[in-house]
Design brief:
Layout lengths: L1 H14 L7 H9 L13 H13 L3 H26 L2 H11 L3 H5 L7 H21 L4 H13 L8 H11 L11 H22 L3 H7 L9 H13 L2 H13 L10 H20 L13 H14 L5 H28 L10 H4 L3 H8 L3 E4 L2 H11 L11 H5 L11 E6 L4 H5 L3 E6 L12 H4 E9 L4 H12 L5
């Protein structure tokens, strides 16, 4: 297992050079320059992690990729500990191996997003539960309160761990007595206290997290959205694990539940409510495949335990390797396409992976007062690679609004990175003395077709100044943008 992890880690770090930052990754890296108690989209943990990376390694792709890989290694160790404590050393090893080969955890683990710390603290909370209910040691309630609180500082779906604990207490006759003890309630209070900075920040700013995430919801699309949800789960978490999880969830409240030992019942209980919530919400919004990353953490351990049934036969061992082979094939196809066969624009072949490093010089040579963009991912990538401040027109992205805007003066010049926007030059000309489209591509990324859809406009000599001008400019830049 050690050799496998060493080889896999070296491969990931080698692969990193073919993986420029995602727009979201650059956005979270930007948060480290604006540290706060929380942010519009997510709690602050990912900002603190990026701040630490900058402190020790500076802003560079390799530091971010290395941190993502190290967090996956930590998750691997926690998976092993849970499997070992709940079942056996062999199940712990099998679970750790499987975790590193599930498409979402392998490919997604190369990127530094809020899912990474969420997975860490979900696993730590799961480990605390296993120790708590296996050894009936009340001290683990306080560890559980701590890890849930830190998980809530990572991403809001950590709240779904609580109904999982509640479900287990209701189903497990041996553990219902905890409802009459003070420790669970003190643990919940501890979690709320740790999470309180996020609550304070949201209160101070009018709870923008609620409006931001609430805006994702729309009228229900029961066929399209739900079908998309299941297809993504099927592919991103591998057919074997997904189908096993679905079969367990469907039978969970039937007689089959009586066949589960206490630890399997716990792990399924922690996963089921989270899956159910995402399923119920899926008609009203497109659920990102990675959003459910914590759902399958306990299920893959139960999956390994059921495959081996704690006393493996040759056929059960063969079933495990057959499933593993299918999962590896999916990984080869997904990672191979994204890293090596991703279609590059013809004019970027041979220079795509060095293009972003030229941004600082390009921006300096442009001799402009400010840099603007109309899209969050593009703005963040330009800020990260260009080592400059980038602004968005007011009203496009609430987090950028909180970071404020400059007040353009008459005669100021800007670079405008426009993503997927039509009639841009026509609409900018009334605002500037000169507007020119840069004929070359200046930004490379492998998400949202950024290289193909991003154009750079050099806008010189603004013709007005003052707040009225800024308002007009913002409205002009915002018009006709995709929702």
């Amino acid at each position: 297992m050690t050799i496998f992890l060493i080889v896999l880690t070296i491969f990931k770090l080698w692969l990193a050079r073919f993986l420029p930052l995602l727009g979201d990754e650059a956005y979270y890296a930007l948060w480290a320059r604006h540290l706060d108690l929380s942010f519009v989209d997510h709690p602050p943990m990912i900002a603190w992690i990026n701040w630490a990376i900058n402190l020790f390694a500076g802003y560079n792709d390799f530091g971010i990729r290395l941190t993502a890989v190290l967090l996956v290694l930590l998750s691997t160790y926690l998976i092993y500990l849970i499997g070992k404590e709940a079942f056996s050393h062999k199940i712990g090893l099998a679970s750790a191996l499987l975790f590193n080969l599930i498409p979402t955890y392998l490919a997604g683990g190369l990127f530094l997003t809020p899912e990474q710390p969420l997975i860490i603290f979900w696993l730590l909370s799961t480990y605390a539960c296993v120790k708590l209910f296996k050894h009936e040691d009340k001290r683990y309630w306080y560890l559980l309160g701590l890890t849930i609180g830190l998980g809530l500082l990572s991403k809001y779906p950590m709240i779904l761990f609580l109904p999982g604990v509640l479900l287990f207490l209701l189903l497990s006759k041996n553990n219902r007595l905890w409802f009459r003890r003070q420790e669970p309630y003190l643990a919940a209070l501890l979690a709320v206290l740790i999470f309180s900075p996020v609550l304070i920040w949201n209160y101070q700013h009018g709870f923008p997290a609620l409006t931001f995430h609430g805006a994702r919801l729309s009228s229900p699309h029961y066929i399209d959205n739900v079908l998309t949800f299941f297809v993504l789960q099927f592919l991103m978490y591998s057919p074997p694990l997904f189908l096993f999880s679905i079969s367990v969830f469907l039978c969970f409240f039937w007689k089959e539940r009586q066949q589960y030992d206490e630890m399997s019942l716990l792990l399924v209980s922690l996963s089921f409510p989270a899956f159910l919530v995402f399923l119920l919400v899926s008609p009203y919004t497109q659920i990102g495949g990675h959003w459910t990353s914590m759902v399958y953490l306990g299920m893959l351990i139960v999956f390994c335990a059921k495959l081996f049934a704690l006393t493996p036969t040759p056929w059960k061992t063969t079933r495990f390797w057959i499933n593993l082979g299918l999962i590896i094939l999916l990984n080869i196809l997904a990672v191979g396409y994204y890293a090596f066969f991703y279609p590059l624009p013809a004019d970027l072949k041979g220079k795509a992976y060095t293009l972003n490093q030229e941004l600082p010089k390009y921006i300096r040579d442009a001799k402009v007062n400010y840099v603007f963009s109309n899209q969050m991912g593009v703005a963040s990538l330009v800020a990260y690679y260009g080592k400059t401040e980038v602004y968005m027109p007011k009203g496009l992205w609430r987090q950028f609004d909180l970071w404020d805007q400059p007040e353009l003066k008459k005669g100021d010049s800007i670079l405008y990175f426009a993503f997927d926007e039509s009639d841009t030059e026509k609409r900018l000309k009334p605002l500037f003395g000169s507007v020119k489209l840069d004929p070359q591509k200046r930004l490379f990324a492998k998400d949202s077709d950024i290289p193909l859809k991003t154009k750079v406009y050099v806008c010189r000599q603004s013709i007005q100044s003052g707040n009225n001008y800024n308002h007009l400019g913002a409205e002009t830049l915002r018009r006709r943008l995709p929702e």
